[in-house]
Predict the 3D structure of the following.
Amino acid sequence: MKLVKSLDKSLWVFHVNSGSCNGCDIEIVAALTPRYDVERFGIKLVGSPRHADVLLVTGPVTKPMRERIKRIYDQTPDPKVVMCVGTCGSTGGVFYDSYTLDGPIDDVIPVTIYVIGCPPRPEAIIDGVVKAWAKLEELRGETKKKEGKK
Amino acid sequence: MNGMDILMAVIGSVLVMLFGIFFGLVFKGIDRVLSARMQARIGPRVRQPFWDVGKLFSKENIIPENAVKWMFSSAPVLGLASSAVMLLYLPLGPLAPVLQGHGDIILMLYLLVIPSLAMVTGGFASGSPYAAVGAQREMVMMMSYEFPLAAVVVSIAWKLNVFGIANPFSITSIASNPIWMNSGILGIIGSAILLVVLIIVTPAELSKIPFDAPEAETEIVGGLLAEYSGRNLGIFYLADAVKTIVMGALLVAIFFPWGIAGIVGLAAGSVGAIAADIAFFLLKLFLVLFVSVTVIRTSFARLKIDQIVYTYWAPLTIAALFGLVLIIWDLNLLGIEWYPQVLGGW
């Protein structure tokens, strides 16, 4: 897995709804509007997980969605980042321990960044992206160190 | 061709391809920034497409299990190669085409089909229902925009033929005898109609909004490209960039082939003159593409595939044929004494 610097500057996002109430989804759309305009950072919403670098997962993962989420995760080419948007996906939120759920999301797929809020404001989502950059930077540092040791 | 010519052609092809890729990506960046400004956004940097390509080439290249593997992987290369081949037949400002005298505009009409055909092959080979739907739509769209495009080409060649110019279909003779020359008021109007038709055909050739039904992200998850990832997607991205330059260069060669060096007063053939002409050519190219890609893409929403077919078969074909009729009338009227003076009053 190669982490090039261009990855930070062009994160293509695929949005997965795992049974969310649409609140977080609306806030994600709000982050794309002219007011917040995440295209400034090269972030683009794409239609297929094959094109994506970031999976933006919302919702507490209902039982039928478990397999689908896993498949979408596998369909995304490496290197990839998973961002969990909203309290539901991070902890279960008000649906905690419900018999209809298989979540939260990190029980199903590995999550890189958690954005808390019900729903989180677009600023919080953009902050999550900044954290993802920091994480990628860290990972790049580690791979460099490993190569250096060799 | 002797050995030297072939060597020059090979070097020229590589340079022209690099030219196409570089300026194609630059235009994509300018397009995204200007489109963002028109929507009251700030938009990405101009070099954003370079980062996109860099990232795509570094990513994992997934070939789906039920794809026809050799077809799936060769389609992007075919798309990029055929787009680059078209640039070899087009004059790039003051620079004559690399393969001058080997092909004409009829060949261009056929070559323009190949990148779309490569995408269709790739779409069908990827074994995804979304890609299959996208490929079908792309084929329908190819059938619909061919007719107005052919009508434009025929009008231009017909006019050159009437004036007794040798090889009326050759791109070099089209570029050296612009369609606006030797015409009265009706001919100017007819040529302007043909220009508008070609400007509206361009976004369909490039699958840009409002004619992006084959790649509609929001309804068929990227359509033709749905299963492509990593390097293959990156090559398609480059092919799209090169084809954008091809369509722009074609429009410039047919309608705006003039240079600037003579007007500014630089001696023909000097380094300064060539540099000025190249800069002017790029300016014309970006202006034409700005109108036909950016403005149209920002101001309209996606059309359904049946609406696309209707747009091309009914209004645009009629408009192109009307333009042809105007040009024919114009040439018939030029013999009448008062007619050429209509424009003289301006």
